[in-house]
Each structure stands twice: as C-alpha cells, then as structure tokens.
Amino acid sequence: MRIAVAGSIATDHLMSFQGRFSEQIIPDQIQQLSLSFLIDELDVRRGGVAANICFGMGGFGLNPVLVGAAGADFEEYRSWLDRHGVDTSAVHISELRHTARFICTTDLDQNQIASFYAGAMAEARNIELQPIAERLGGLDLVLIGADDPAAMVRHSEECRTRSIPFAADPSQQLARMEGPQVRSLIEGATFLFSNEYEKALAEQKTDWSDEEVLDRVGTRVTTLGAKGARIDRRGEPSIHVPSAAVGELVDPTGMGDAFRAGFLAAHSWGLSLERAAQVGNATAAHCLEADGPQEYALTAATLTERLERSYGSDAAAEVAAYV
User: Fold this and answer.
1) Which one of 73, 109, 257, 291 is the catalytic residue?
2) Is the pTM of this model over 0.85?
3) Which of 60, 94, 215, 242 meets the CB 3.0–4.6 Å disulfide criterion with 228?
4) Integer CA distances (angstroms), 314 to 94, 109, 307, in order
5) Is 43 tagged catalytic?
C-alpha cells in the first residue's frame, strides 16, 4: 500500500530549571512580570504527529509519504527522516515561517511554562493531495492527523471527492475544532483513531452518539493506555486487544503515533484488525521504552519477540512473514 500521512511537523525544545518558579515570582509585581531562568539542560526532540507516524512506518520499510508544512530550517530534520525510510518529497516549505516549535521549561516541582509556535503549519491548508497522488501513481490511504484545522478539513473533503480512502485522527486538535469541522473530518473515514477522552470529545462536538459515529466510519480504533486498544465496527462485536509487554517505562511521548504506525503497517500487509492492533501495541511499547518519539529502534527480532511474549507464537509467526 502507498500511504500518505498528513499532519504536524515540529521540534520540541525541552528545558529543565533547577529551581522553583514560585520562588522567582514577587506577588505584588505580578502585573509587571519579567522573569529569566538559567537553564541547566536542553533536550531538542524531533516531533509532530505526522513525522512521528512516518518515522515508525519507515521502520517497517513502508516508505510512507509525509504531507505537511515546514520552514527552511527543516533540512536537517528532512535528512533524518529520509535516512529512516520516509518520503519527504511532498513537504511544503514555507518562504516566511519556521517549522512549528514547542518550547517548554519545567521546574523542580514539575510546573511548566510553555509556548507553541505554529509557524509553517498554518500553510498546510494550501497543500493539494491530487498532485501528490498523481506523481506517486496513486494513494491507497491518507491518514489525516493533527494539523492546521483548515488543512485537516480540506484533506478529508478532497479524499471524499476523489474517492481516496482516509483515516481521521484529530487527536489534540479536537479541542480547537468546532462541531461542523469535526463532522466534516470524520464523515466517510475508513478508520477513526482516538483515545478514550478524544472519543468522548468527538461525540460531544459532533452531537453524534457512538452508534451514529459508527454509521459514518468503517472502523473505529480507540487506544486505552495501559489497557490496550478497542476496535469497533457497525453491527459487529467489539474487539479488545490487551497492551503489549513493556520493560522499563521511560517516556510516553509519541506512543499513540507509534501505535498508528504499527497498526497501519499490519493493515497494509492485509492482516486482521486484531493483529493490526497487536502490532500497534507492540510498536507503542518500543516507543515507551525510549526517550523521545523518534528514538526507539524497531527490528524484526525485537518486534516478533515482543509479539510472542504478549500475544503468543501464532501472532509472532504471522507477522514474521512481513518484517
């Protein structure tokens, strides 16, 4: 399958302050606040949901197509993704804005001061999918992840118009989107991805019940954190897939993106939905054991070993034929 992943491309700048913000604030000067912190640690991580998902799929050898907007400062990041099996030829480069950036400082009490610069992400709404599909000889699936909301709606509308199967994955952008936007994004999706909170929020925003959502999508995939994942289809019993075995818990950032990468990889091989969720859970477990959403190493040996440990020898043997 030729899969395109549309969504955010960003870098995270994470800093640690070895003090307490509360000790730096003078209450009677709060109206004229001007603070400066000496930072001891800076961790720059590659991120953005589309880039994270593509990284994971690249590890399976799928050569996914990254669709999103970045700035002229993207070249080093592009090189990293290219080396990890991602097709970055469809990334729109802004002439005016930098790549989106999340900047966060955390103190000793785990309080945070953070800013998010959307930057080039705002230009994702200008991306047309059809020229990308024509250049690549067609697209079998487009995952529409968190991005500029106007871009997300445009991509879903284009997929419906051009009969391109798509997966709706609004994640954190649900909070920013209005009901009509969410309904437009979801309507007709082959897959709808969310966690439990996002599932409830999507139903609230659309004013659709769980059954009404299932009337409008092919398959609804809900991640359940430590409880694994649930798969729902209209008129069929739910499938619950327990989480995969995990060793040391290091960092949960990007787990959901890793799950999607594994799920779509198994789907592209023609495996069952249950097996796809198992591969998704196993990939997410790899991510959980690494420090950062694109720092885990996925190999055929580690994947099949985890699948056998978590779901049995039949699961491992079936997946082994493809990795």
Assistant:
1) 257
2) yes
3) 242
4) 48, 46, 9
5) no
